[in-house]
Design brief:
This protein has 201 residues and is an alpha/beta fold. The protein contains 7 helices and 10 strands.
């Protein structure tokens, strides 16, 4: 059975993630399911919990824009987009640096990076380091917006879920910026027009 904890129980949440466990938590979009970035065993557990296709990558969540260049190649236009929309409801798909373990992106040359506009998640990242995160549901299941909805799909499959309520049921906009153009991979609150206006300015 999955334990429900309050966001204030940061020590317990932190210990769970550092142990390599999978934790569900609210973001400003939908509930996320996260493990410590760089931990291959934990990442494998994340895929197992969701019944997720191993060929699909998961998002890297960071706490600050200055960290982008550690994991991905960033030029002036990409940085303009990052500064305009991060922290926020956007995931940037960029070319990953060779220093990033390919296992963390399932062998893909790109990496999706998001900086959430959630004080709780930013605080968690500052405590445990970057996180590998995907939506807190079974593959093919609906997005979740509170701990009850998470438990309906994942009770018993994860050790811990953080109690909360998201302000949206819409996941982040996923945009690929690797070829000098704006390519929307998943539509969200931030539109292609919004991004192109900044990218091409």
């Amino acid at each position: 059975m999955t334990k429900v904890v309050l966001p204030e129980k940061m020590d317990e949440i932190k210990a769970c993630i550092l142990k390599g466990d999978v934790v569900a938590f609210p973001t400003e979009t939908v509930y996320g399911l996260g493990v410590q970035f760089g931990n291959k065993k934990a990442l494998d557990s994340l895929f197992t919990v969701k019944n997720r296709d191993q060929k699909k990558a998961v998002t890297l969540m960071l706490s600050h824009i200055d960290m982008l260049e550690k994991y991905a190649y960033v030029d002036e236009r990409i940085m303009k987009v990052a500064k305009a929309f991060m922290p926020g409801r956007i995931t940037l798909v960029l070319n990953r640096k060779e220093s990033v373990d390919p296992a963390m992106t399932n062998g893909l040359p790109t990496i999706g990076i998001r900086i959430p506009d959630s004080p709780f998640v930013l605080g968690l990242i500052n405590e445990v380091g970057p996180l590998s995160v995907t939506s807190a549901n079974l593959s093919g299941g609906g997005n979740t917006t509170n701990e009850k909805e998470v438990l309906e799909q994942l009770d018993g499959r994860i050790p811990l879920v953080v109690k909360g309520q998201t302000s949206s049921s819409l996941a982040s906009t996923v945009v690929k910026l690797t070829d000098g153009k704006v390519e929307i991979l998943r539509e969200g609150a931030i539109t292609k027009e919004d991004i192109e206006e900044v990218f091409n300015s």
